[in-house]
Amino acid sequence: MGKLSFFFKRLIKMDWKAMWATTKLLKQRSGKSRLWLLCDMLRCAVKYNAGYVDYKIAQMYRLTDDQKKTQITRGLSNTIVRRMNDKAYWYLFDDKATFNELFKEEVGRSWMKISASTDLEEFKTFLSHNIDVFAKPLEGSSGVGIKQFTSEHWQGREEAFLKELNDLQIGILEERVIQHSKMMALCPTSVNTIRIATLLGDKKQGIVYAFLRIGNGNVMDNVDQGGMAARVDLASGKLLTVGADKQGNTYTHHPMTNTPIIGFDIPFFKEAADTCLKAAQKVPQMRFVAWDVAITEKGPVFIEGNSFPSHAVPQFAAHYPDGIGIMREFREFMDI
Length: 336
Fold this sequence. Notes:
The chain is of the alpha+beta class. The protein contains 14 helices and eleven strands.
């Protein structure tokens, strides 16, 4: 899809109210007029395939043209995914039960697919082995629809609980991952996962980026659920940057635990990276995958793999204080 066709397609689907609210916020942050911001947003949309969310999280109002063209915007991200990933294989990652079966060694926990036809006795047996579970829709992203239940929700009323799950359109139950004590000390309310993106590029293969996603009070660490992210040094497994959320807030220390973020050393990072590199070869038709990896006391386990990696976190302005975005890393793997 060309730049202009992408622009007009997004224009039709534009959430004008949200866009107008964004210009109000950016006017306060930048000191620039709404007219200036709207004109610059329009220019960035046409020239760089940047939507208003791209514009906000990358703080494009403060960037020069040379800096702006180094950002992986939504349009560019879509282009990369279309080039790298054969859509016929997306389902292997998009359906959580299919993913768990395909990568069962890396998932490393019990799970059960459920539906209206689920055997009640099998359901009861699964629940009897768990004190709490995570319930997820079979498909979806950004943590939408994911819920945590404890045994108090089902003990003595398993049949009613199964019906409630089906009413909620839950498609899979998973044993709760108990994260490493060091990860727990960073934020105890969520399992804090590493987003590791592997790219089987035309120039080389490997890991193009990694970010630690950190919760901030919610059960999910996802930035669309109030979490934050910090960039990981691929050589050392240490955090290179402050934590940043989607609203542009930054944190040198976690606001709940006061744990320092910059320099935080992720346990088992090398093992997590190696696991992702090995898994990337299992479906070579999917050349660009973002793996969400939890760290337990025994090592890394997969939470999921993303066939259409979010372009948001790798754009956060706080991760690139020099204004040069992540385009340079992608160009080591492929021509863009």
